[in-house]
Every structure is written in C-alpha cells, then in structure tokens.
Amino acid sequence: MSSTFQQLKLSHSGALQLLLAAVERATAMRKPQCIAVVDDSCNLLAFVRMDDAKILAEGSAIRKAKTAASSRVPTGDMEDGLAVKLAAATEGNTTNLKGGLPIIVDGQVIGGIGVGSGTGDEDREVGNAALVGFAGAQTFQFD
Amino acid sequence: MSSTFQQLKLSHSGALQLLLAAVERATAMRKPQCIAVVDDSCNLLAFVRMDDAKILAEGSAIRKAKTAASSRVPTGDMEDGLAVKLAAATEGNTTNLKGGLPIIVDGQVIGGIGVGSGTGDEDREVGNAALVGFAGAQTFQFD
Amino acid sequence: MSSTFQQLKLSHSGALQLLLAAVERATAMRKPQCIAVVDDSCNLLAFVRMDDAKILAEGSAIRKAKTAASSRVPTGDMEDGLAVKLAAATEGNTTNLKGGLPIIVDGQVIGGIGVGSGTGDEDREVGNAALVGFAGAQTFQFD
Amino acid sequence: MSSTFQQLKLSHSGALQLLLAAVERATAMRKPQCIAVVDDSCNLLAFVRMDDAKILAEGSAIRKAKTAASSRVPTGDMEDGLAVKLAAATEGNTTNLKGGLPIIVDGQVIGGIGVGSGTGDEDREVGNAALVGFAGAQTFQFD
Q: Is the Cβ pair A55, B69 closer than 8 Å?
C-alpha cells in the first residue's frame, strides 16, 4: 500500500461562498443565523454570526458542522439514546440537533456546514440552500 | 447593508437595580437565592449569592440568565429532548431549568436575569419581581 | 479537639456594600472597573462589570479576589517565578496581578475583593476604598 | 443613572467586509492567514482560515481579536511580565502576540480583528489593511 494519498479539500474560497449563500437565504427568510463551515478534519474554516442571531448558537452551529463532517450524514436523525452517549463521549462535539449537513462532492465528504439560531427545519433549509449553489455538491431533502 | 448599527444596552446601574430588587423579593420570601444578570451578549454584568443560598446555584443562575438572553424567552418551557441536545451543544450554557427571564425593553432584548436556589417557581417569582420594578421592562406570568 | 467550630463569614449584604463602595470610587475616578467579592472559600459572592470596563477583566477580577482570599495578602507582590508556578498549578486561579485585597475583620480573613480593568495601581485604589468604608476591615497602603 | 444606553455595534455585514478585505491583502502578500472578527463583547462575529494557513492559528487569531476589542489597543506592545499574568488570569484569552487591532469608529470600540499565521508584522499589516478599507475606522501605523 502507498504511504500517501491525494484528498479533495474544501478551499477557503469555497467555504466563504457557502457562508455568503447561507447568509443570503437567511436574510430572505428574515431569520438571522449563526453559520459555520468546517473542513473534513472538523476544523473551522469559516463562520459568521448574523445580526440578532442567538449568541449561544455560535457553539451549536460549529458542533453541527463538525458532526455532519464526521458522520457524513445530516444531523438530527440519530437515535436519541445513542446521541446522548456520543455527545458525552466527544465533549459535546457530536450533536443531534438539526441543521448540520455534510459537504459532499464527487462522493467525497470535504466538510460540513452547520446552521443554528432558528428552528431545526429553518436551520436545515439555510444549510441546504448553501449546498444547492455549490457546484457538484450533494443536496438534501427533508420531510 | 450598513456596517454598524445602534443598539440599546443594559447599564451596570440597571443591572444592580435588578439585583437589589431580586434580593428584596427573595428576602421577603425567606428564600435565599443566587441572582445573575447578563447583557445581550451573555456576558456577566452583575451577580450576588445570598446568605444560605446553594453554592452550586451560582452556575445554574448564571446559565439561566444566559439562556434567557440568548433565546429571548423565559427558561423552562423547552421540550426536554431538545433541551438536552442544546445543553450538550453549548457546553452546558443552555439550560431548561426554570428561573431565567429575558430583559426586554422597547421590544429589544437587552439581557437576562437568572435566579437559582429555590424551586423553579420561586426562582421565576424572584426574577419577575425584579423586572416588575424595572422601567419599561416586559414582565411574565406563569401558571 | 472539637469536631466543629464557629467562623466569621461575610454576608451578601456586606459583599454588596463593598461592591457599591467600589463602584462609587471607580465612578469618581472615571475609570470603569470589574469588581468581584468572594468569601473565605473563594466562591463568588458578588460581582459587577461597569459600563465600558474591559470584558476580559471579568475573569481577572474574580481571580484577584480568589487569590487574595486564599493567600490572605494583597495580590501583586509575589516573586514572579513563584507566581507563574502557582498560576499553572491552580488552573490560573492564583494571579499576581495587582488589584486583589483580602477582606480581614478582627484578624480573620472573611473574603477577598478583586478589581480589574484599570492599571494595577488604580485597581488597588478602588479595592482599598471599598475596605476603608467597611466597618472593622483592615486597609492597605501601597507605595 | 440611566438603566439603559445606546451603543454602536458592528454588523455582520461589516464583519464580513473586514474579513474579505483581510483575505484580499493576505492573498496579495501570498501569506495565508487565519482571520477573526469579534464584536465589542468579544463574541465571534466572523472567521476564515485561508488555504495553507496554520491550523493552530485559529485559536491565536480569535484571542488576538478578543484582546484588542477588550483592551482597545493593538496587541503586542504590552510589557511581557504583565502579559503572562493577564494570559493566565483570563484563560489564555489575553494575548500579547502581534496581530490584534481594535475596530474603532467615531471613537467607540465596536470590536476587534485578529490575524494569525504569518509573522507578527505580517499579521498586523493584514489587519490594518482591513481597517483602512472600513468607513470611519481608525487605522494604525507600526514601526
């Protein structure tokens, strides 16, 4: 086996594009949000807290992004008993709040976007709107 | 969009007034309390722990104040499943214990007051008594 | 030996009196401050952050109060090499910043007051002004 | 004394503008950076980590922004003995690394920008370039 490999990465330019698209949707909805984008390593790439968004949503938006990037599926659909154990075992970084979406391009997870301050469904809508405008990204539909 | 805006802030004078009014009510009830006041950014503005109040209520009173300032509604009425997730995702800062009330003047949230050491209903009564005496502040009625 | 003993304690009323006296002096100096009062157990009794005081001084004011209550002498005069070790060994709670003063009545340390946001000398002046107005409290003179 | 007051705040739109201007300068310098913008309360408003910027500079950039917003002067010019004490007393949030600048408009501190991943002087240059393009903001010259 090879000792190194190539990996697709999300650039800061791509992260800012996601951020701005999310801000645009949240503005149109008149629902201010905290929006975080992390890379595939769960490290923060970009963040913004919109005017009048909830202060405490800074932490939850970042954790939603991390959870989605790590688990590779949207947050919020985990079995609750498992979710509590995972939260406890990861210093709160794994969250089952709705609003985290993996950023998947060409079948590869290159990061996550997390949105928080609205209802779970509003948060998901904003995150997905950002993905819709991102070339090649997988998008999500929720009931 | 503008790069700056004006916002109403709670002064330390206002915070101390809230604190003293809460102490007065708690004294009349013979129920010593921890009382915290935070600003709209969830930073601590004023705090007091009354004689015989529970030591560990320091932390819960402060978190009640933060939660109310951030969520803009009284604490304690969140759905419990959601509350646990939000607590985990915000390092314990979001709490669903009763006793946190937003401080709302002219329709703007300028902070939160958190009261802890009594029963949830006693905590709410003390917090609301402080708001009743605060010029222009929204007050709350609980069943 | 007896299995229990009586101890002189600082009341919340006394703590608030110290707080208000410190605010009065800081106001007269036109130097807004963060002011913390802890009891002999180093637990927070009272706190206020004045308008325009430095946000990050919340933590340092509280730690100055704790250090003074624990060490029973004013903060700031420790040998610096020792101070670094004590800070590291106490999770930052021991600080050698000026502005923490023990509250000593009848030769007993009943707490500490910590002041932060000004220069070290300004912080000390505000803390001492609060002690000067506190019946029976030892006061301090600095060069 | 009044219980409330009006205060000038930095909008998310203003924060993003600062972020993009800083990215532009860093790109021109071919020196990727982590860039953080906090409000006057030291809460994160916006952040970006550029491609190839140092991962660990996320934390230092944010703390530089907080320190500048709280102290109201550029970071890096504090006496080192004092700086170590302040860092320890504020959970590492106060830093004396170069690269944090207060955002001052109409004489009011409305936040801080922190830049990290280059040399201290490069960090300062990027932060100041962002301020130069911000309407009404005070700028800084360093030797």
A: yes
